[in-house]
């Protein structure tokens, strides 16, 4: 079964927009797990415009499922992750002022750098994943970094699916098959939604985990958070 990890960045964005502690990020994370989600994802950025580094520490004792921290492995991020020791760290090549993730790693150009970073995390007992596009050469290079998993960057799939082009999933299927053959676990995320998640799941073999935030929180405004979490779980069965 594919696990659902809920990205709670948007909850932090809403909280930060007014100051104070409403909505309560920690309670939302606890509730999401009680609703059945198998993981909590956060993606702190250097400017802390949504998730703050302190949030990452505060969540450590409350995440009883899988704790996934995403980000660019700059020094402050690495220090935080090594101190918290989450279940998984997902490496994303964001620039400092990135609005949202918009590309995966070039695992050929940055292979030696990724090898060093991943070795440090794995020595601390943290599962590692690389955010990546579907280029098969990059998948092959990812396997040489020592990473445990890849996370397929799914924006292009979502865009094509919305246009009615279901053939847009094929590069993701091929990437997943190759990754599995190379011994890599397969995660996925970015623009996955209630509309496209079931089709994606059906076409991606060995899909271990999806990380969903923006769409899930937006859908919850209409349908309710508990209901939406369970709708995703149903589609992922």
Report what the structure shows:
The protein is of the alpha/beta class and 237 residues long. The protein has 11 helices and 8 strands. The chain has helices at 9-18, 25-34, 53-59, 75-84, 111-123, 136-143, 155-162, 170-181, 197-203, 214-223, 225-236; strands at residues 3-7, 39-42, 66-71, 88-91, 127-132, 149-153, 185-189, 207-212. An 8-stranded parallel beta barrel has the order 1-2-3-4-5-6-7-8, surrounded by 6 helices. Helix 9 (197-203) links the parallel strand 7 and strand 8. Helix 6 (136-143) runs parallel beside helix 8 (170-181) and helix 10 packs across helix 11 (225-236). The radius of gyration is 17 Å and the shape is globular. The N and C termini lie close together (6 Å). The model has no long low-confidence stretch (mean pLDDT 95).
Please bin the fraction of helical residues: 40-55%
Q: What is the average of the pLDDT values?
A: 95
How many helices?
Answer: 11
The value of Rg in angstroms is 17 Å
Question: What would you call the quaternary organization?
Answer: single chain
Which structural class is indicated by helix and strand composition? alpha/beta
Q: Enumerate the spans where pLDDT stays under 50 for 5 or more consecutive residues.
A: none
The run of helices and strands is EHHEHEHEHEHEHHEHEHH
Q: Characterize the biggest β-sheet.
A: 8 strands, parallel, barrel
Which word captures the global form? globular
Strand order of the largest sheet: 1-2-3-4-5-6-7-8
Percent of residues in beta strands: 15-25%
Distance between the termini: 6 Å
């Amino acid at each position: 079964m594919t696990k659902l990890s809920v990205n709670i960045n948007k909850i932090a964005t809403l909280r930060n927009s007014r100051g104070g502690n409403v909505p309560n990020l920690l309670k939302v994370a606890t509730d999401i797990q009680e609703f059945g989600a198998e993981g909590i994802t956060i993606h702190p950025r250097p400017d802390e415009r949504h998730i703050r580094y302190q949030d990452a520490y505060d969540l450590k004792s409350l995440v009883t499922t899988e704790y996934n921290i995403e980000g660019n492995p700059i020094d402050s991020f690495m220090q935080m992750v090594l101190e918290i020791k989450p279940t998984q760290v997902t490496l994303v090549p964001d620039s400092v002022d990135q609005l949202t993730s918009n590309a995966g790693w070039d695992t050929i150009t940055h292979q030696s750098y990724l090898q060093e970073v991943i070795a440090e995390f794995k020595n601390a007992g943290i599962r590692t994943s690389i955010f990546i596009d579907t280029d098969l050469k990059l998948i092959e290079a990812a396997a040489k970094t020592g990473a445990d998993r890849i996370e397929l960057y799914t924006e292009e799939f979502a865009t094509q699916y919305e246009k009615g082009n279901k053939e847009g999933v094929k590069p993701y299927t091929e990437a997943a098959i190759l990754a599995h053959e190379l011994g890599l676990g397969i995660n996925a995320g970015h623009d996955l939604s209630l509309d496209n998640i079931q089709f994606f799941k059906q076409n991606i073999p060995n899909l271990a985990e999806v990380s969903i935030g923006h769409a899930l929180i937006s859908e919850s405004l209409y349908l309710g958070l508990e209901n939406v979490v369970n709708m995703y779980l149903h589609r992922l069965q």
